[in-house]
Amino acid sequence: MDNFILIDKLVCGYKTGFRLQGISTQISRGSFTGIVGPNGSGKTTLFKAITGEIAIMSGNILLDKHNISDMTSKQKAQKMAIVTQNTEIADMSVEDYVLLGRMPYKKHFQLIDKEKDVEIARKYMKLTGVLKYKDNLMNELSGGEQQLAAIARALTQEPDVLLLDEPTSFLDISHQVQILNLIQNLNESMSLTVLMIIHDLNLASEYCDYLLMMSNGSIYTEGTPEKVLNYQHIEDVYNTVVFTQQNPLSKKPAIFLVSEKLYKSAGKNL
Amino acid sequence: MKNKHLRRVVWITLLLILLAGVMLLALAVGETSFSILELVRILKSKSGMEYSIVYNIRLPRILLGLATGGALSLSGALLQGIYRNPLVEPYTLGISGGAALGVAVTIVFGLDLSLGTYLLPFSGFAGALAVVFLVYFLAIGRSNFNINRMLLIGVMISFMASSAMMLLMAITSAENLHSIIYWIMGSLDEPDMILIRTALISSVAGLVISYLFANQLNALRLGVTRAKHLGVNTDLTIRILFIIASLLTGICVSIVGVIGFVGLIIPHLMRLLIGSDYRILLLTSFIGGSIFVIACDLVSRTIIAPNELPIGVITGMVGGLVFIVVLSRSKFKIQ
Question: Does domain B22-329 have CATH number 1.10.3470.10?
Answer without folding.
Answer: yes
